[in-house]
Amino acid sequence: MAWSSISEVFTSHGPTVIMPTWFCSREWFFHVGRFDEGGKGVPEDLLFFYEHLQKGGGVFRVNQCLLLYRYHPQAATHSVLEETIWNHRVRFLEDRVLSSWTSFTIWNAGKQGKKLYRSLSPANQKKVTAFCDVDEKKIRKGFYTYEESEERPKPKIPVCHFRDATPPFVICVKLDLTGGAFETNLGMLNLKEGMDYYHFN
What we know:
Low-confidence stretches: 1-5
Largest sheet: 6 strands, mixed
Structural class: alpha/beta
Number of domains: 2
Distance between the termini: 20 Å
CATH architecture of the largest domain: 3-Layer(aba) Sandwich
Strand content: 5-15%
CATH topology of the largest domain: Rossmann fold
Mean pLDDT: 83
Radius of gyration: 19 Å
Number of helices: 7
């Protein structure tokens, strides 16, 4: 892989890859399995990209403009719902990372962290040992109750300070939004990206 990190594929914008078939061979295209022609609303390029990675494909960065993409309101991309993309991203994270972890911590006890937790399969929800955060109010409360759960009693997941949390982490904090505070906090833990944590922001 030649982008900054393989884990970028789990983030909301991922690496800057446009239509992965522009620069792959016909043989590789057929090997990956062509596009999902499920119709309007199917993110066929994302699904092809994930399958490309699953089959051992890579990505190489080119520091020049190779394609001029023209935006227009009738583009098919507008038919793909944000929730559809989210669900595919979560399934890819579960298949590629969480399937090999026995437990993990979600870094962010706020909206995005809770949304990720609720989107996980029941088996992966049970692997979540805690949420961690820096927000004293969330930490003081001490736990997150999954109210929508049909389980009785409803699952209660502890919330702790990031320094008290146990890796590995799935990080649901956007980069470059805290004036470097989050990056400093993460750096002080001396963790290895792709082993101890993945970004899913």
